[in-house]
C-alpha cells in the first residue's frame, strides 16, 4: 500500500464514518456503513474487521463490526483538522478553551494554517503574543449583541481585557468614569491583572440590564504588520434619566435592585421600584 493511498482525502461519506468512529470509545464504524465504502476503506488500511469467530475466515458473514486502524485514526484526524481549518481560517477570531476548562478560556486570532499535529499559531489576548494551540479546542465567538437603543446617558460600564463587566459608574465624562471605576475592588484587581480596563457610555435601553451581563469588546492587540481598525459610534449626549429625575425633584433614588437581578431601578420612598423608563413616564412626562 502506497503512502498516496493511505493519505488520500476522504469523501464526504467516508469522512462521516471516520469521524463517527473517532468519537466512539472502541473506534467502531457505524453499523449502517455501506459495504462498497468499507471495502475501499479497507484497501486503504483505514479499517479492519472484527470477526465473530477468530478461527473462521474473513468473509462478510463472519464480520461482527469494523474498527479504525492506526492509519484510519490518522485519516480521521486529518479530516477533522481540515474541517476545523475551514471553520477557523487565518485572521478568524475565536475562543480558546484549554484542557483546564472554561475558567481559563482565552480570546485568540488565528495566524497560521494548521500544522500536521493539528495545532495553529494564534495571537492570545491573555499572553499578549503568539502561542500554539490545538484547533480542536477553538470555539466560535458568541454572536454580537444587538445595537443598544435610546439616548446616551451618564452611566458607564467598566469591562476587563476579555470584555467581562466589572462595574457600572455614573459620571459626566470618560475621565470621571475612570476615576469612579477605581473605587471598585474588581476594577483595581483588573488593573493589576490586565494593566488596564475599558469604559463605555451606556444607552437608556441598557439601564435595565442586570449588572454583570453587559460585555465589552475584547482587547486584542494587532499583529506587528497590521493597523487596528477603529469604529467610533457617535450620538447626542443628553442627561441620563436618573440625573433628570433628581434635578426635577422626583421622590426616590436610583438603586441597584436585588429583586430585579441587579438591574438599576428608581426606588420611591414607599419602597416601590420603577424601571428608568417607568419613572421617566411618571415624573418627566417622557
Q: What layout of secondary structure does this protein have?
A:
Layout: H1 3-6, H2 12-23, H3 35-43, E1 47-51, E2 63-68, H4 70-87, E3 93-96, E4 106-110, E5 119-124, E6 129-134, E7 138-139, E8 152-159, E9 165-170, H5 174-181, H6 185-194, E10 198-203, H7 241-248, E11 253-257, E12 263-267, E13 273-274, H8 276-283
Antiparallel strand pairs: 1-2, 3-4, 3-7, 4-5, 5-6, 8-9, 8-10, 11-12, 12-13
Helix pairs in contact: 2-4, 7-8
Explain what this protein looks like in three dimensions.
By secondary structure, the protein is of the alpha+beta class. It contains 8 helices and 13 strands. The strands form 4 sheets. The chain has a 5-stranded antiparallel sheet, with no helix packed on it. The protein has a 3-stranded antiparallel sheet with strand order 9-8-10, covered by helices on one side. A hairpin with a 4-residue loop joins β5 and β6. The chain is elongated and about 90 Å long. About 7% of the residues have low confidence.
